[in-house]
Amino acid sequence: MPKNTRDLARKVRIHSLEMTNKGHTSHVGSCLSCADILAVLYGDVMNYRADNPRWENRDRFILSKGHAGAALYAVLVECGFFPAGLLDTHCQSGSILTGHVSHKVPGVEASTGSLGHGLSIGCGMAIATKSRVFVLLSDGDLNEGSTWEAVMFAGQHRLHNLTAIVDYNGLQAMGETKKILDIKSVSKKVAEFGWRARDINGHNLTLIKSALTDTQKWDRRPTCIVAHTVKGKGVSFMERRTEWHYRSPSDEELEKALIELEVNMKNTDKQALACLVKAEIGRGLSMNDTVKRLNGLGFKQHTIRTYYKSFSQR
Questions:
Q1: What does the DSSP assignment read for 90-156?
Q2: SS3 of 266, please?
Q3: Which of 124, 147, 214, 267 has the fewest CB within 10 Å, making it most exposed?
Q4: Which of 83, 2, 84, 87 is nearest to 43 (CA)?
Q5: What percent of the chain has pLDDT above 70?
């Protein structure tokens, strides 16, 4: 399993790109927009046992936007639910890794794909179990009446162990959400039905984790987190482009996308390390203590020393 959620999110994006390329399948943009959310859920928040997917006390996760199945398969394989080689069969004849997510896959709670059903399934699970239940929805899910029936039901019955996360990327199959069926403020609407609701940046790993863990401190009401995201996030030529709801990347586009993800990761590493070193210097930590602490997060010792010397001399 990757060392941290940032690395896990990157792996989810890489696997999603490779699967949709090899299987000539759609919805890579939808996979990229929810990669960070999945990484935090499986890397930092949820309780599960990869070697025992049906463990009674596990947290439950429902991917209501089942067309982003490749992203869920990717995070499950990185967390050890099944061998990585199975990803090569995505959307191949006879494979359990169907385009829309399938309950036949270890770690998948329910088959989804036809929008509007995930939150209702989550309500049933929240009633039936004392475990936490997380449901990831899309813009399109919010166009479905059955979703709002579930919103009302959960509020009425105060399903405090239920958390709905909306991957609000502003695009759906036929274009911009606001031009197709403008739902305006989701958080205000669900709050009217007795939910706790908040809006966050759906690509900020710290904010995602904070929002998901804060749900444990709130009163006995269901929680809705509206995560504002970018469709195709992480690959510049896919970002905010409706066609990547349908298209699969060619071999050339795949190569270009993977290179971009690698470059972005290195740049983010440099920025993150700079901030961490400055913070440790501000706390009065010595170079050796700073190296020991940050090396434990995966940064190289000589790079930490270089940054420390540079910032401590300013």
A1: TT-TT-S--SS--TTSTT--S---STT-HHHHHHHHHHH-SS-EEEEEETGGGG-HHHHHHHHHHHH
A2: helix
A3: 267
A4: 2
A5: 96
Among the listed residues 91, 90, 148, 94, the one whose alpha carbon sits nearest the alpha carbon of residue 118? 148
- Per-residue pLDDT band at 311 (split at 50, 70, 90): confident
Give the residue-averaged pLDDT of 184-189.
94
Distance (Å, whole) CA 166 – CA 163: 10
Residue 32: both structure tokens together? 């990229």
Distant-in-sequence contacts of 248-257, Cβ < 8 A, 24+ apart:
248/20, 248/21, 248/23, 248/24, 248/25, 248/26, 248/28, 249/17, 249/20, 249/21, 249/28, 250/21, 251/21, 253/21, 254/17, 254/18, 254/21, 257/17
Q: Indicate the domain borders of the chain.
A: 5-249, 262-312
Select the more confidently predicted residue: 87 or 220: 87
The alpha helices in the chain, defined as continuous H runs, are 5-23, 28-40, 69-78, 118-128, 145-156, 177-180, 186-191, 205-214, 251-282, 287-295, 301-312
Q: How many CB atoms lie within 10 A of CB 29?
A: 27
Question: Which whole-number Å values give the CA distances from 264 to 34, 141, 157, 235, 254, in the listed order?
Answer: 17, 31, 44, 9, 15
CA nearest neighbour of 67 among 144, 203, 147, 173: 173
Domain 5-249 has CATH 3.40.50.970: yes
Strand pairing class (171-172; 175-176): antiparallel
